[in-house]
Structure formats: C-alpha cells, structure tokens
Amino acid sequence: MRVGRTLVAFLTSAAACVLAAACVSSKVPARVQAFADATTLTAANVADALTAVENSFVAVRLDQAALDFERRGLDPREVVSWHFLSDMDRKARLDILKALERYAGNLAALAGGTQLVAFDEATRSLGESLGQVNDDVVRQRLLSHAPASDEDLRLFATAINALGHWLITGAGARSVREQVHAMQEPVARICDLLVLDLGAPAESGKAGSGLRLQLWNQYDQALEQQDLFLRHNLERLDPVVRRSEIRALATMATEQRRADAALAATQDAVRGLARAHGQLAAALDGQAVEFDALIGTLLAEGGRIKAFYGSLAGGH
Amino acid sequence: MPPRESSAPTRARPTPEEMKEAFAALHEALREAYWKADTIAVKDRIHGLEEIVFEIQTGLNRAELSARTAEYRTLKEKLLRADDSLEQLKGELDGIVRAVDTANRVASAIDRAVNLARGFIA
What's the CATH class of domain B16-121? Predict the structure, then answer.
C-alpha cells in the first residue's frame, strides 16, 4: 500500500514537472498545425490555378471550334487532346502538392496535434474504466488487501497522461525540428518552381511566362471570339440574348484582370509559405519570429483566393 | 578538295527568350490592330493570324513548364523520404496510445467480469 502511494506521489510530481516544461513549448503544436493548414490551403489554391488555366484553355478551343464550324467542322476525336499541360506535367505538379500537404500533415501529427488528442481520449477512458473497476464490490471483496482510493486512481490516470504527453511531444518535437531543418532547401525550391510556373503576364516589353501569361492570352483570345460571335450573328440574335452576350463580353474583360490577380495572389501565397517554413524552423529553435502574423495573412488571403477560384469553375 | 566556306553571314539561333519576346510583341500588335479594325472581314483575318501566334506562344510556354517537370519529380522523392521517417516515428508514438487503449480494454473487461461474477460473490 505504502509502495503504491509512493509510486502515485512520484508519478504526480513527474507529471507536474512535465506539465511545466510543456507550457514553455505550448505554442509549437499550434504553430505546426497552422503551418499544415496554410500548406493545405495554398496547395489547393495552386491546384485550382492549374484547373482554371486548363478550363479556360478548353473553353477557348470550344469557342474557336464554334466560330470555325462552317469552315472546318469539328472532329470529336480532337477534343480529348485539348489540354494546355500534358497529363504527365500536370500530374507531376499535383503530386508535389499532395506530397507537401502530407509532409506538413505529418509534422502536425508529430508535433502533438492529432496523436495527443487520441492519447487524451485513451487516458480519459482509462480513468473511467479504472473508476468502474474500483466500485464497492471490487473494493470490498477483490481489492480488500490493498484498496485504492478514487483520488489515487485519478492521480494515476493523470500521471500516465502527463508522461505520455512528455514521450509524444518530446520525441515528436525533436523529429519535427530535425525534419523542418532538413527540408528547408527542398521546400524552398519547390516554392521557387511553383512561383516560376505561375509566371507573369506580358507587359512593357517583357515576354511574360507561365500560367499567368497563358491565362491572360487565353482571355485575349476569348474576348475576340466573343466579339466575332456577336458581329457575325448580331442580326440573328433576339434583343434579350444580344444584350446578354454584350454583357458577357464586358464581364470577360473585367474577369481577365481578376483572374490574373488571383494567380498573382496565389504566387504571393506560395512565396509566403516558403517564408513560413523558414520561420517555423527558427521558431522551433526558440528564436523570436513573426510566424503567427505571417500564417494569419496566409490563411486569410488563402480563403479569399479559394472563393475566387470557386466562382471561376467551368472556364469563362 | 577542301569544303568551301560559306560567304553568307552566320546568324545566331534565337534563344527561347528572344522567341518569346518576339511573339509577345507580335501578339500585342495584332491585338491592338484587331480592336481598331472596323470591318468584320479585317477582324476575321487578324484573328486568324492571332490564332497562329497564340498556338506558338502556347507551345513555347508549355515547353518551359514541361522542362521543370523532372525537377518536381526529384523533389517529390525527397519529400517522400522525409515523410517515411516522420511516419515511422508516428507509428512508434501511436504504440503509446495503443498501450493505453489496451490497458483501457483490460480494465473494461475486468469490470464486465466483475459484474457477471457479482451474483456469485455476494
């Protein structure tokens, strides 16, 4: 009995020390989880950017086919080849986005997020089960030589919980820190490549590049296609349809700028994600950083960009 | 008989960047011309030329993006290797959660057994 109480006392004091240590690094799980959330949102927005360019590309091809139908007709077999990026190029990008998400998700799980939730639930259930076993019948008949008080059992469950936290967060935090440092260069390079992919529209003598150039050019094509459709059919359209098609032309011109702004914002988010990964490494080393503000901006902007891509679904 | 040297001046092959700049300038000139043109016939002809320029620009752009695909694959492998080591540790830590779950199941089983045996003990 005395040994049992001594053990509970030892575990309780160990738990107190562990909890005190945990308070010092209590921001780590939340920060790693926030980084994982920002990664998921940014990856989804980059994937949406790829989809937006593909949808617009197909829409341009379709509208051109409609304009040229009398002259050229349309071979339905051609339609399946209407892609801006090949399947291989597109898959390589979607794969890297998934791998980034998985990496950030694993960091978050190891930093304490999901595993600690499962562990807390398991120890809570254990406490309840032990309490049930300790009912009067067991106390009086089976454990009559060494009865444990309800307080002893509560302390025991608390101590197990605290030691588990220490093991999980200790080993997890070490591994997270090592991996975040080791992955600085690859993550920065991935973000650099995605920024290059997003590119820039042509302006003031510069050729432009990437998805932003492509989408801008596709809108240029789409605007002329819509204008030609109107001019060729102006006399045949009834007034209501005519007004609606003219409005569509005007809307398309505005949307061209909004779509480019969304791609530019996605590009900024990717740059921000690379900075956040760097700041996460510094934060895990205990350095003062502006990580929280940076992640807050990434999440807020990411939500806004996501809403815009949602409104674009299906091309022009 | 030695090969005759060509007297024509050798023209350096344009770089992809020079090509992109030339076609971007052409696209811009044609776009302006299209919106200034005042007959459908002229607009049709200009748009036809623009279609060709669009295809060339798309091809150049696509090639530039495609050239980065191999590097993405290499980087993906690095990420997956990091993930493997994270997942391995995650599995080990999951063992701690499972150990408490097992203790929980044992305690529940004891509780059930005690309740069943209650009639015999009392």
Answer: mainly alpha
